[in-house]
Amino acid sequence: MTSEDRDPNPLDGTTDNGEGARSSTISLGPKGKRQLPIWQESILLLCIALGLAVLLKAFFIQAFYIPSESMLPGLHVNDRILVQKVSYWGGGTPQRGDVIVFSDPDGWLVGAESAGPTSPVAKGLAKVGLYPTGGHLVKRVVGVGGDVITCCDKQGRLKVNGVAVDEKAYLAKDTPCAAPLSQQIVRPNQKCGAHDLKVTVPKGYLFVMGDNRMDSADSSAHICVPGSTTCAPTQGFVPVDDVVGKVFTLVWPLSRFEMISRPDDFKDVPDPK
């Protein structure tokens, strides 16, 4: 065969060097498709991963950290948690006993508690949901719209719609009563009396409390002082619209990894009248 007889454009992706040897020019994948270089594949995979992270943050799951000691003993400062955003889709709303994350409703966070990530890398990761953000609080839902909450009975327990709730399973052990920091306490040296807390939760709002009741600036600590004429009737309550989602997993540190679910403590509480 002469040089004129050789195919100048062979289908196997090689060229003839005139001496019978052929050298490769391009890499062909299955069915002759051209494969991307490794660096291009890496960039593509990174873009896909970031896209999925943004999608997850926007619609499904987001990471947060615990900013204070208000949820001890279950959740510690700087613990990393995951929040389900889909928990309350389709008309669902937070229920009594749920541990939720919500936006700061009215300056509840102070100082370092309100700080988010500081480094450029952490800020970038936070925007796509791969790093916890600041400006949010974690509390337990005690009352929903229409509930009447009082404290305390003779055993120091909350009553919701007339039913006492035993919260020993998750409260800090040194808690003298269920609402020791209530703004409505009128006898500072005689806490935990029968009239230290009585509120009706407005429709569309939640009454939330930390599990560490002696160190939690929650709804009980932000509600109006009795007799106040300048306090908004919704002060101290959390708008349902401010809720990001329900906490379902403690992911860090790994030594305390735990799935978090709604306790049975409120199961006997009737619906508000």
Summarize the structure.
The protein has 273 residues and is of the alpha+beta class.
Into which percentage range does the β-strand content fall? 15-25%
The stretches of 5 or more residues where confidence is low (pLDDT under 50) are 19-26
Q: How would a textbook summarize the main sheet? A: 8 strands, antiparallel
Shape: elongated
> How would you state the average pLDDT, rounded?
79
- Structural class estimated from helices and strands: alpha+beta
Rg, alpha carbons? 29 Å
**How many individual β-strands?**
14
Task: Walk me through what this model shows.
- It contains 3 helices and 14 strands.
- It has helices at residues 38-59, 120-127, 219-222; strands at residues 14-16, 22-24, 61-65, 80-84, 99-103, 136-143, 148-151, 158-160, 163-165, 197-200, 205-209, 238-239, 243-252, 258-259.
- The radius of gyration is 29 Å and the shape is elongated.
- The termini are far apart.
- Mean pLDDT is 79; it is low at 19-26.
